[in-house]
Design a protein that fits this description.
Order of helices and strands: HHHHHHH
Helix content: over 70%
Number of domains: 1
Radius of gyration: 16 Å
Number of strands: 0
Number of helices: 7
Largest sheet: none
Structural class: mainly alpha
Distance between the termini: 21 Å
């Protein structure tokens, strides 16, 4: 696998993290440099660790993981998406819920956006490919695109307010459905 292929895989895997960070920042609940750093760091870290974990798991359990990873990602993204949509329809700012760049919500989003990277790691193990360089590229690209997503989302959120929170929730649900669809079709 050459550097261009690894970069294209990294960008493809990072699209979920980009969409989630865009929605989280647009909602206004993950605004500011610290939230952007937390999202970028954790999404990048999980995107780095998941291929390594997949590679370590190896060929023996690949059929077990591939059969349900897309459902787990869809469920986690949909759960967070529904919460964002509900918060978007709530007029009281206090009830918007917690910052998605903190606590268990951050962990759930990090896992949900990186679960496809586990399958990439499994694939690399099946073809006896190296893992450290591809995993590092995937992690760095995911972190960078997450940062771009939070910056862009913050600009959109200040302009469009609660509508962006609702849109962000819808995007999360669509991303989850797309993950399931992609796995079912292929």
């Amino acid at each position: 696998m050459d550097a261009l292929e690894i970069l294209l895989i990294a960008v493809g895997l990072s699209m979920d993290a980009f969409a989630v960070s865009l929605g989280a920042a647009a909602s206004g609940r993950a605004a500011g440099g610290r939230a952007a750093f937390r999202l970028s760091f954790h999404f990048g870290l999980f995107q780095f660790l998941m291929p390594v974990a997949g590679w370590l798991i190896g060929v023996s359990v690949a059929p077990l993981v591939v059969s349900f990873d897309h459902w787990v990602a869809c469920a986690l993204l949909s759960f967070v998406g529904v919460r964002m949509i509900r918060a978007g329809f709530t007029p009281d700012v206090e009830s918007l819920g917690q910052d998605p760049s903190r606590g268990w919500t951050l962990v759930m989003l990090s896992v949900a956006t990186s679960i496809d990277a586990l399958a990439v790691g499994l694939s690399l193990a099946m073809i006896a490919g190296p893992i450290w360089y591809p995993a590092a590229v995937i992690g760095v690209v995911a972190g960078a695109l997450t940062l771009v997503g939070t910056r862009l989302g913050t600009r959109l959120g200040t302009r469009f307010g609660k509508g962006m929170e609702i849109a962000g929730g819808v995007v999360l649900i669509i991303v989850g459905i797309r993950i399931v669809y992609t796995h079912l079709v292929s």
